[in-house]
Structures are given as C-alpha cells and as structure tokens.
Amino acid sequence: MAAVAQCVRGALRPRYPLLSFSLRTSPRPLCVATQQKNSGQNLDEDRGQGQNEQKVEPSSAEKMLTEEKSKLEEQLKEVTDKYKRALADAENVRQRSQKLVEEAKLYGIQSFCKDLLEVADILEKATESVPKEEIKDENPHLKSLYEGLVMTEVQIQKVFKKHGLLRLNPVGAKFDPYEHEALFHAPVEGKEPGTIALVSKIGYKLHGRTLRPALVGVVKDA
Fold it and tell me: pTM value?
C-alpha cells in the first residue's frame, strides 16, 4: 500500500502538486480507518463466537440436567414401588396376625370343649336310661334325681351355646362328610338314599368348625 502511494505521488507531482500533497497526507487516516474497521470486524467475530459458545453451553447443560432428571425419576419410581410393596406386605402381616389372634380367641378352648363333650354325653345317656314310667310322685327320689340330671344337661348346653359350641343331630338331613361320619349304610323303606336315618352319637361344631362329627347311619338304595 505504501509503495503504491509513493508511485502515484511521483507520477502526479509535476502536474498536480495539490493532489500530490493530499495523497502524501492521506495514507495515515486510511490506515487508521482500516485498522478500526478490522478491529470492529474482529470484535464482531469474537462476539459472534462468544454468543455461539454461550448457545452451545446451555444446550449441553440442559442435556445433562435432563439425564439427571430421568435418573432421579427412575429412582423415585423404584423407591415408591418398594414403599408400596412394603406397605402391602405389612398390611398382609397385620391381617394374618389379627386373624390368628381372633382364631386363638375362638378356638383356644377347643381342647377344653372336647373334654366337656364327654361329660355332656354321659348326662345324656343317664337321662335316657331312666324309665319314663318310673318317674312318678310315688318314687320322689328317682324323680328328683332325673329332674336334676335334666336341669344339668340343659344348663351345660346353654354354656356350650354361649361359647359357640352347637349340637349336630342331623336325622333326616343329607349326609355331609365334613360334619358326619358314616358308621354303616343300609336301605330304609320310605327314606331317600343319601340321607341320615340314625344318629348314634351327637356331633358338635365350634364357631362353625366341626369339633366332633356326628356318628350316623346313612340310607342307601335297596
């Protein structure tokens, strides 16, 4: 640029001294303007690069935050699922424990009731063994004894009922293997096959559960 200006000044100096003077003084301002323009372009490029870098950095940060969010959501889902399962298991354990406690309350006297059943059987046999024709005012001792046995039997049945212990006397009912035990099968005229014709020993149920099956005779086809 300096060489070109010098050549132009040399060619124009004889003819146009004023133009030569202006050319002599103009290169410095041109150079300054050019430098300022170049500096402005460089600043714009730096700003553009900075803005591009700023645009890239948030997208990368957002990607990291999204991945972290997904991981945390998965962890939360897993923990929530485990928590719900733990609650369900705890509820099941509570219900089973409550059921066991209730069954213990209901059936804890099962062995005791079985022993009392033998006493009830003896009272029943005692009252049945007394001849009804002998129970007269002329025989007051036998009459008083019989009435005492009957009252005792009635009272013990009341106690049984109070505690959920009920008699099974299924004459004429359908045979049920869960409540009855068949001693024999025999044809009986006028009776439907599969029904109970005879009860040899009374059965008992404790709160709906068979404590002792009734010993029965079942009708069969002729």
Answer: 0.58
Q: Which helix (H) or strand (E) holds 164?
A: none
| Residue 123 C-alpha from the chain's centroid | 51
> Model confidence over 75-126: pLDDT tens digits?
999 999 999 999 999 999 999 999 888 888 888 888 888 899 999 999 999 9
184 forms bridges with which residues in the sheet? 217
Q: At what angle do helices 17-25 and 27-107 cross, to 10 degrees?
A: 30
In terms of Cβ atoms closer than 10 Å to its own Cβ (0-12, 13-18, 19+), residue 219 is buried
Residues 63 and 53: their CA atoms lie apart, in Å, by 15
pLDDT tens, residue by residue, 120-153: 999 999 998 888 888 888 888 888 999 999 999 9
Q: Which residues contact 87 (CB under 8 A, 6 or more apart)?
A: none
Nearest to residue 201, comparing CAs of 122, 112, 111, 127?
122
CA triplet 211, 127, 154: central angle to 5 degrees?
Answer: 55
Nearest to 218, CA basis, from 189, 201, 188: 188
